[in-house]
Design brief:
- The chain has one domain (5-152): Rossmann fold (3-Layer(aba) Sandwich).
- The chain contains 5 helices and 5 strands.
- The chain has helices at residues 20-31, 47-53, 79-82, 98-107, 132-152; strands at 5-9, 37-41, 58-65, 74-78, 113-120.
- A 5-stranded mixed sheet has the order 2-1-3-5-4.
- α1 links the parallel β1 (5-9) and β2 (37-41).
Length: 153
């Protein structure tokens, strides 16, 4: 039986670099779309995300994070490998932060294999368009994530 897989972009394109998850998702749809994967623009993370996650065998969340890394630095990890490292210093700017999403998934007994492609943001003020530093890295980030998708899924 084939696995059910989803790629989910999270973010707000009205808050500069916070929109990177959505912009990467759009690039994947344009240049690297696979028919065996579902793609979702989830905007701001909310409880609805948990309902979507549980219907898949594996998902990749793509989101801008604030983890004190260099702007545009990409970290891709499986939930089981990062959940113990997440504290309130690794944050998302959404209704639910990443730690809350992962804790709820665990408490609800969601068996989905969850991966996070976290991209360090720089500017998250209310304005459209990525910062220059992140715009410069976007194409490389998309390629790195596409390579990861092909390798893991």
């Amino acid at each position: 039986m084939p696995k059910k897989i989803a790629i989910i972009g999270i973010g707000s394109t009205l808050r500069r670099d916070d929109g990177i998850g959505i912009m990467v998702l759009e690039s994947l749809l344009k240049f690297y779309k696979r028919k065996d994967i579902d793609y979702f623009n989830f905007g701001n993370a909310s409880f609805d995300l948990l309902h979507k996650i549980k219907t898949y065998d594996a998902i990749l969340l793509i989101d801008g994070i604030n983890a004190g890394l260099g702007v545009g630095e990409l970290k891709i990890s499986e939930l089981k490998d990062i959940e113990y490292k997440l504290d309130n210093s690794v944050t998302s700017t959404h209704e639910l932060n990443l730690k809350s999403i992962f804790e709820l998934a665990k408490k609800l007994g969601i068996k989905t294999r969850i991966y996070l492609a976290g991209i360090q943001v720089g500017e998250i003020s209310f304005k459209e368009g990525l910062s220059e530093a992140l715009r410069y890295r976007k194409e490389d980030i998309v390629k790195e994530i596409a390579t990861f998708i092909d390798k893991i899924f």
